[in-house]
Write a structure and sequence with these properties.
241 residues, alpha+beta, nine-stranded mixed sheet, 15 strands
Amino acid sequence: MGDIVRLQKYIAMCGVASRRAAEELISEGKVKVNGEKVIEQGVKVEIGSDRVMVNGKEIKPVQKDYYIMLNKPAGYVSTVKDQFERPTVIDLLGEEVSTRIFPVGRLDYETEGLLLMTNDGDFTYKVTHPKHNIDKTYIAVIKGGISIKGLAVLRSGVTLDDGFKTSPAEVEMLNADNGHTVIKITIHEGKNRQVRRMFEAVGCRVVELQRISIGRVELGNLPLGRWRYLTSHEVNYLKNL
């Protein structure tokens, strides 16, 4: 079963006209769905199943590749749908994105920051496959302090609770104040909740976590909960890693 969208949105997805102009085409009787003329607004069609014609010519959606950077807030899951009906990152995109897209990798429910999203499977493979060793940098706020030995273990590779030994991480202590320590950490693997589990392995608890960059693509000053399209330079950089 394909996505179900309003007819005027479908016409816009096919590159025929803007949504407002599509509404005029419908009102003027120039649109047929499955051979039947449609003149009322709000009719919905199923992509891939319903046959839509404008001025006697069948139209189909234009495939457009989307490359998006989202500053994910805590409290959202990095999936298209959630079995527990929690908010998903898709809910933050709005109607401007007119096709089905997917998160590139994941950030866990409590973690904030840089999440890439696309409908380009090759792009997803390039960014997420372990063999490409893409650096991912996070700012972690941990409760209390961390020992010199703990920092050394993180920098040399730490054994997680499932026996997996991480690669050496770049670790920099940025600040320590009011019972918390702020640490910048760069890894290039992508195990589930890896950064949190790395700190747990050295006796520390992460209370806040934000991803700030993937490779040379940086979150910058993008507000929390907002998104933007990647620049062509950023897309090409990630595609050619």
